[in-house]
Specification:
Four copies of one chain form a homotetramer. Chain A is α+β, with helices and mostly antiparallel strands. Helices cover 22% and strands 36% of the residues of chain A. The interface between C and D is medium-sized, with 24 and 24 residues.
Chain lengths: 144, 144, 144, 144
C-alpha cells in the first residue's frame, strides 16, 4: 500500500480543510507504515493538575487517524469518524508536546481502522492508546 | 443512591475546577437517575461541513460523565477518565446546542461507568453514544 | 421503522443460520423499540467463582445485536460484526438466565449501531453494557 | 518489569483455574515484551461462512490479556475483565489456528491495559484488534 499524499502536501491540505486547528498540530513523519503527529504544548489543552486534557488527546488521536487514512485514499475522498475507543493510561506532562504514533490496521472500501499510541515527548511509556474507525463514503461521480 | 451535590452547587464547583470551560457548558437537569448537560453552539466547535466537531462532542460526553459521577461521590473525591468508547452516528446540526443525557450504570469503590447519549437540541435521534469509565482513587487521609 | 421479521420467524431463521447455538438462546420479546434475548444458564458458560464467563456474555450481546439489526433489514441481507465495546460491571449469578435488552440506535445504509444491556434475570442493575457495530454489505443483485 | 510466572508454569496454572478451556489454547511464547497465545482450529468455533466466530476470537483475546497480566502480578492475585473494545477487521481462515499477540501497555496498582492483535496463522495482516482492561483487586490479607 503506497501513500498518495506525502508529508508536505498533507500539511498544506490539513491547513485548508481544518483552518481552526492551524498551529496546534504538525506532521513529524509520514510513510506507509507510520504517521507521527505532534500536538504542541499549549495552555488551552491543560486541565487541573497541570496535565493535558482528555479532549485534547482525543483531538490529536482523531486528527492522526484522519491523516493516516487520507494519505492512502487521496484528497478527493471523504472520511468521517464513526468510532473511537481510547484508554487514558498515564498523566501526560504539561510542558511537553504530545506525539501520536498512528498505524492503519485496515483499509477497506468503506472503513479504515487505525491504531494510535500517544506519548509525552521523551517518555518511553504511552500516555494513551486509541483505536479509531473512519467511514469512507463512496465518492460522488464527477461529470466532466 | 442519592446525589450529594445538587444542580446549583455543581455548577459553581465546575466553574472552580474547570475555569477554562466556563461558558461552554451548563447543567440543565440533575437528579439520581439522569443528568442533562448542554453544550452551547459556538463557532469554535465547528468543523468543515458546518457540523460540531468530534473533539467537542467527546468533551461534552466527558464532562457529563464527570458531573454524573461526582454528584454521587462528593467534591472531596477525585475522578479521572480511564476509558471512553464513542460512536458517532449522525451529523449534529451546527446551529443547535448539543444535549448530553448521562446515566451512571455502575458506581463502584474504584470505578464508575456512565452511559451518555448526545442529541442536537430538538432532534429525536441521538448524534452520538458514549460509554465512559472514571477511576475514583481512594481519598488521601487529611491530617488536621 | 417497522420490523420485517417477527419473533417466531426470527427464531426459526436463527436456528437455520446458527445451528450450533440452538438451545442456548431464545427470543423473549421483539418489536421495533426493544429486543429481549435470553441466554439459558448452563454449566458450559461458567468460569471459576461460579459466574457466567465473559465470552458467553459477549456471545449473547453479539447475537442480540445481530437479531435486533436483522429484524429491520430482512433475511436476504448480510450483517457482520465490525466492533464491540463491552463493560463488565457486576458479577452475574451462575444459576440465573442472562437477559439482553437490545436497542438499535442507528440503522444506516452500511452500518448499524446497537446498545445492549445485560441483566441476570430478576436483578435490577445491569451486569454488562455493550455497544456493537454491524456492517451491512450492499446486497448482491440476484438474476432471475 | 520482570515476569513472575514463566511459560510452563503458566500453562499448568491455566489448566488448574480454567479446566473447561483445556485443549483449546496453548502458550507459544511468553516474555516481558510479548505473549503469543494459540487457539486451535476446531469446529466448535466456526460460524456460517466457514469462519472463526466472534465469541471465539473474543475468548482468545480475553485469555491472552489475562495471561499477559497474570505473568507480572503473580498467581496469588485476582484479575477480572472490566472492559474490552474489539475491532473485527478481516475474515479468519477456518482451518488455521488463530494467534494472539498480547502486550501489556499499562500495569497499575488497580488496572492493567493490554493490546491484543489476532492473526490467522501464516497471514501477515491481523484479523482483529482488541484492547482489554483488567481490574486487579487488592489482595486479601492472609492470616497464618
Amino acid at each position: 500500500m503506497k501513500v498518495k499524499i506525502g508529508k508536505e502536501e498533507m500539511g498544506t491540505f490539513l491547513e485548508e480543510v481544518f483552518p481552526q486547528i492551524d498551529g496546534m498540530f504538525a506532521i513529524d513523519h509520514l510513510d506507509e507504515d507510520l504517521l507521527v503527529m505532534r500536538m504542541f504544548s499549549d495552555e488551552k489543552h491543560l486541565r487541573p493538575g497541570n496535565t493535558v486534557s482528555g479532549p485534547s488527546m482525543f483531538a490529536l488521536a482523531d486528527v492522526a487517524a484522519y491523516v493516516a487514512t487520507m494519505c492512502f485514499v487521496g484528497k478527493e475522498a471523504l472520511a468521517v469518524t464513526t468510532h473511537c475507543s481510547i484508554d487514558f493510561m498515564r498523566k501526560p506532562e504539561a510542558d511537553k508536546d504530545v506525539l501520536a504514533h498512528a498505524k492503519v490496521l485496515k483499509l477497506g472500501k468503506a472503513l479504515s481502522v487505525t491504531d494510535v499510541l500517544l506519548f509525552s515527548e521523551g517518555m518511553e511509556k504511552p500516555v494513551a492508546h486509541a483505536s479509531l474507525t473512519y467511514s469512507i463514503p463512496p465518492m460522488k461521480q464527477v461529470a466532466n
